[in-house]
Design brief:
alpha+beta; about 30% helix; binds methionine sulfoxide; globular; 6-stranded antiparallel β-sheet
Amino acid sequence: MFSNPTAELKPDYASLGHQLASVLEGERDLTANAAQFSAFIYETVADLNWAGFYLVKPAKNPKADQAAQELLVGPFQGKVACARIAFGRGVCGTAAAERRTVLVPDVHAFPGHIACDSASNSEIVMPVIKDTQLFGVFDIDSPSLNRFSEEDQLGLEQLLAVFIAATDFN
Ligand code: SME
């Protein structure tokens, strides 16, 4: 049914948390762990078409009336995506600006949604925050409408917390 037969629509997030901790054990490098985390989510959670990071970076063309920082695509699984996203723009920029998880059951109904992959129909974006500092967001897209429940949100936030605790950001 799905490209990866081990992926599940309703994964056991507690068990995935243990698996993820062993995958990341012994390595604290940001690029390595972010790549592993993206692959782990894409492999274990079914019905996704994109999973990956946008990281906070200095703005490429900073203007006086705009933020000095923006989001730049980082390690991910899926099709080629938009490289840079301004704070406050799209689902990713909203999650970054408001420092909260944004769950979108239907991306076509989200004002300002940035369509990187036309296959995406629902999306969840979680902020990556360590010691009160925002380092980026983790974005997951699904080709199905209403793919992510509140239970998924809690489970995915727990997995992201395992990644954050296992990784050095500076
Ligand atoms: N849809 C996102 C853009 C990133 S892609 O989905 C990978 C957004 O609206 O921020």
